[in-house]
Amino acid sequence: MAIKTKLSRRNFMKAVAAMGAATFLSTYKSEIVSALKEAGDYWHINWLNGAGCTGCTISFAQAADPDIVEVLTSITVGDSKLPIALPDYMETIHPASGTLAEELKERWAHGEPGKRILIVEGAVQEPGWCEIAGKDFREHLKEAAEIADYIIAFGACACFGGVPSAKGNPTGARGVKDFLKEEGINKTVINLPLCPGHPDHLILTLAAIMLGIIPELDQYGRPKAFFGRSMHDELCVYRPYYDRGIFATKPGEEGCRYKIGCKGPVVHTDCALRKWNNHVSYCVEVGAPCLGCAEPGFPDKFSPFYDEIPGLPKILGISPTTLGELLLVGSGVGIGVHLGKRVLSKGEHEEEEEE
Ligand code: SF4
Prior knowledge:
Layout: H1 9-18, H2 21-37, E1 43-49, H3 55-61, H4 68-73, E2 76-77, E3 82-83, E4 89-90, H5 98-111, E5 115-121, E6 131-132, E7 135-136, H6 137-147, E8 150-154, H7 156-160, H8 176-182, E9 189-192, H9 199-210, H10 224-227, H11 231-235, H12 239-243, H13 271-274, H14 320-329, H15 333-354
Parallel strand pairs: 1-4, 1-5, 5-8, 8-9
Antiparallel strand pairs: 2-3, 6-7
Helix pairs in contact: 2-9, 14-15
Bound molecules: iron/sulfur cluster.
Residues 231-232, 236, 238-239, 242, 256-258, 262, 264-265, 284, 290 line the site of iron/sulfur cluster.
């Protein structure tokens, strides 16, 4: 499918990486809306729920700008004039139930012309733990995945197993991609992790797909546009504190959250740029540490949540903790200058030693 918008594929993803959905849509709305109108195909969405808390549904339904009403009424696609994100089947919120609901799923699969997008929320468990309409969730997922043109795993559970796969994992919970691979279905799964998934990520990924742009993915199947940058090195607004060795050690204290367990140094996500709740703040900004929900292995890999990760990266060859102590002690200008020289010479010295 050709892109009708003036935005190139590369620029489209660059722009969505740098902006929230609202800014992106308001900046490029006319181009996007006209491109979507010419998208031609009918798009049908099937949203399946496996093992999860339904928080990703709530996150999506509470999208603020564009809000869910705008998403369902003003951003329409192709000749169908259907909204960009109106699932044909979504058991958690659609009004149909029982046989009628299952008919909707069947119609998504076989009854309508056009492209099919499968969105999965929640992890996949061993047989018997999740049954819908007398059929195991795994069977529903396999059937839908086999005929879907595009598959999106939304939220940490669908991507990598998330909380349902935590230590012990009695139900054998795992991510959609791993499950499909075991079943011999080797299709691309676009992973949009976080706990819950971010509505911007989903809406912008749907827009990209409908415009014929498949986002470039990283080694974990995540769009690089959203998950290609280090939270700690590139985006976190608390980084200046870290660089000066100023750490919060209890809730409400000023400083970088490293010492209360922030996993930012090993996490790739744009939370610090995109933010949450109508782009107001993100976990670190409200006083909590980043818990690593963008990464495979969450939650066990980052547990205990409130402990420091070992191996704090150094600044000029010296640990930020030591640097912070030195700066605190050196309250006089002369002492500060002396310490600065010491830090710099130590950094240079260590760099020489490393060489
Ligand atoms: Fe930000 Fe956490 Fe890195 Fe501190 S450790 S700068 S709070 S990401």
